[in-house]
Design goal:
mainly beta; 4-stranded antiparallel sheet; OB fold (Dihydrolipoamide Acetyltransferase, E2P); 1 helix; 4 strands; 10% helix
């Protein structure tokens, strides 16, 4: 698979929370947790299970950074 996105974070699925239409998939990427909201169909098609290897692919035109006052 080739992607135009350059922000690919390989990790391990640590939690899958299925809702009515979408699923929250949590990936451990080097000790940090990244959460993706994807369709239930996508979870099935990708064969995602806790412990499986997967990558977070991030494609965004803007990334915002904030700090607490």
């Amino acid at each position: 698979m080739k992607l135009s996105a350059r922000n690919v974070l390989p990790g391990t699925v640590v939690e899958i929370v299925t809702g009515a239409v979408t699923t929250h998939v949590r990936l451990d990427v080097g000790g940090s947790i990244v959460t993706a909201s994807i369709t239930n169909d996508a979870v099935r098609e990708l064969g995602l299970t806790v412990g499986s290897r997967a990558s977070a692919v991030i494609k965004a035109s803007d990334v915002m950074v904030g700090v607490d006052d």
